[in-house]
Amino acid sequence: MSIFVMVQFRPLTDRPLGAHHASMSDHAVLFVCLGNICRSPLAEGLFRAAVEHRGLADRFSIDSCGTSGWHVGEPPDRRSVEVAGEYGVDISRQRSRQLVPTDFSDFQWLVAMDGSNERTLIDRAPSGSRARVVRFTSYVPGEAPADVPDPYYGGGRGFEVVYKLLERGCDALIDAILADETSAD
Ligand code: 4NP
Fold this sequence. Notes:
By secondary structure, the protein is α/β, with parallel strands linked by helices. The protein is 34% helix and 12% strand. The protein has five helices and four strands. Strands 2-1-3-4 form a four-stranded parallel β-sheet. Strand 1 (27-33), helix 1 and strand 2 (60-66) form a beta-alpha-beta unit. The N and C termini lie far apart (49 Å). 4-nitrophenyl phosphate binds at residues 33-39, 70, 150, 152.
């Protein structure tokens, strides 16, 4: 008796693009904060909306994570969900995850929300990592603070401040990524 096993190969391009296939799009961007429940989920949602608005969705893979694992599996903070919703962006289905070593090879751009996040990323980068570790505020045109301020222990107004700052920087960050020749190799 012979047994025939049929194996079906799918071309790579048929696969859905997502966080786990980040290396398959031209530009893979990971937003990073401490808890991945306040700032980086908002950054992910706003950046994705800006990318979609410009008709570039198929060229970007976008995700977010926290340097800590304190809130793994949780949805974004209610205040982040609310402020995003007020501007028509739904981030309610995101779930917190922690930074992992493969993020440094799956993503070309690791975008830190503040200086502390940036230092943690530099510390945790595997040797030989070619990922670009940058700080979000350096892309905000005009006067900008050095950090996207952590709103977790403040009131709802802090989330509005975060939203407005992120909104100001997203288009410039897209432009910088598109202009960077090393990000598409
Ligand atoms: P995020 O804000 O880093 O913007 O998500 C925080 C969320 C939680 C905590 C701190 C900051 N925490 O201490 O649990």
